[in-house]
Design a protein that fits this description.
about 450 residues, alpha/beta, 15 strands, 4-stranded antiparallel sheet
């Protein structure tokens, strides 16, 4: 058999060479390689994969245990990491419910095999809607980055414009995903932030707003920590230009901070991970989108929405899809956007968490976090050469500047790790204008002893 001969594989769909060629002709490309032109050459594996022989089940288990034992986790170390994945306390009942087989293993089934999943997702949507003070919430997207990307595309379809204004103080990883999701037809422009406050520069925003602006997006709290005090002014400027205001928010903060709809947001989005989802080594992400009950916005959701309706039996109610014809499930390639797998399990998880906490619990949680983070920032600032940037108002994350200590964030973090402490996320590469700064995160899991420990450790290191 020739080495490069193409054969059909019994487990790979459409692997018959003749079928592949017919499909390629249909979409107008010459070869499979043409489908990957956007992937840089240096990222492509050209040689054969060096795959070891198959292991027995026991051998594989031993191998995986050895690999996993190399991990250094937040159970045996104090962690002040955040920047998109945060350590919060997860009540045991949350894991007990989301690990039930009808939730954990159910995928995209319909009512006859639903086992309560539709109702659970309806309850999740209702609870998040109450938290963000909106009316309509979608079944979760993969993460915050996809949620904001979808929200911005919704705004573009509504306004029929193609320019998006985003804050320069956004997460670099999130920005890359948004740019990828928006390409090639939407243009992303960055709005500066004031280095004195960390908040959006309103003058720069005014200069970049135009009749082509589809949406203005900002986050509150911002990625770098400060609470955006000019939310209403930003929304007003966006609306005056005929654009839609999209706000990204940490839902965990809404027990103490006003929801974005109170200062002009048309679309609210964010990540569900702070609402009862473990960090899972950075993989426990799930995004949400919320709007008012306005058909103009509702009909632009590409993802599933679950509602409640009476059945044929008087007094009985059922749960099912709302305006199903919006989705690519109904229209396939004619859909507004393609929607595939959803992180529905994390939606159910967030619903359980919010039901447990209730309004008073969320308020108490937020107050406790702010007290701890303020205590940490004040005591870190007492160390000679260490200052906290944008420290006037923040929630759980804040920037610590080590520029005057003569040591880099990398050096300090390595020294902290030797003491069993994960220091803040190094911002010196992504935001060089901020010097040797690290983003520290303090939540309800941090005790006074934890904070005093890191303060003393840094004092000794610098």
């Amino acid at each position: 058999m020739k080495k490069n001969r193409q054969v059909a594989h019994p487990y790979i769909p459409n692997s018959v060479p003749q079928v592949q060629q017919e499909m390629l002709r249909e979409i107008g490309v010459a070869s499979m390689e043409d489908l990957y032109v956007d992937i840089p050459e240096y990222l492509r594996l050209r040689e054969a994969m060096d795959i070891p022989p198959a292991l027995t089940e026991y051998e594989l288990q031993r191998h995986m245990e050895k690999v996993m034992d190399k991990n250094t986790t937040c159970k045996e170390n104090i962690s002040f990491l955040g920047a998109g994945c945060w350590q919060h306390f997860i009540p045991a009942v949350v894991d007990e419910i989301n690990s039930r087989s009808e939730f954990l293993t159910a995928y995209a089934g319909e009512p006859y095999e639903d086992h309560g999943r539709f109702q659970a997702l309806f309850e999740y949507q209702s609870l998040v809607a109450e938290l963000v003070d909106m009316d309509v919430v979608n079944v979760p997207t993969f993460d915050w980055a996809q949620a904001v990307s979808t929200a911005l595309r919704m705004a573009s379809r509504i306004t029929k414009r193609n320019e998006l204004l985003l804050p320069k103080n956004i997460s670099p990883d999130k920005l890359l995903i948004i740019k990828n999701y928006a390409s090639p037809d939407l243009k992303v422009m960055l709005v500066n932030y004031k280095e004195s406050t960390g908040m959006l520069d309103l003058d720069d925003l005014k200069s970049k707003l135009s009749q082509n602006t589809a949406a203005v997006y900002f986050e509150n709290p911002t990625f770098l920590g400060p609470i955006e005090a000019n939310g209403q002014k930003i929304a007003d400027l966006a609306h005056q230009a005929g654009a839609i205001c999209v706000v990204g928010v940490d839902p965990n903060s809404l027990g103490v901070l006003a929801p974005p709809g109170h200062y002009g947001a048309d679309i609210v989005c964010g990540d569900l991970q702070p609402l009862g989802v473990h960090m899972h080594y950075g993989g426990g992400q799930s995004g949400f989108i919320a709007t008012h009950d306005d058909p103009t916005f509702v009909m632009e959701y590409p993802s599933r929405l679950f509602g409640i309706a009476p059945t044929e039996v008087e007094g009985e109610y059922g749960f099912g899809d709302v305006a199903y014809e919006r989705t690519s499930f109904a229209q396939r390639e004619k859909g507004k956007e393609s929607v595939g797998t959803q992180t529905a399990l994390w939606g159910i998880t967030a619903g359980v968490y919010l039901a447990l906490m209730g309004p008073h619990g969320m308020k108490e949680l937020g107050q406790g976090i702010m007290q701890r983070s303020q205590y940490a920032a004040n005591h870190l600032s007492s160390i000679p050469g260490v200052t906290c940037k944008f420290a006037s108002a923040f929630y759980k994350e804040f920037l610590v500047d080590f520029s005057q200590t003569g040591k880099s964030v990398k050096e300090i973090n390595q020294a902290l790790l030797a003491k069993g402490i994960f220091g803040g996320v190094d911002m010196s590469q992504a935001f060089p204008e901020l010097g040797q700064s690290a983003l520290y995160c303090v939540t309800e899991v941090h005790s006074k002893e934890d904070i005093d420990t890191v303060v003393q450790a840094i004092r000794e290191i610098v």
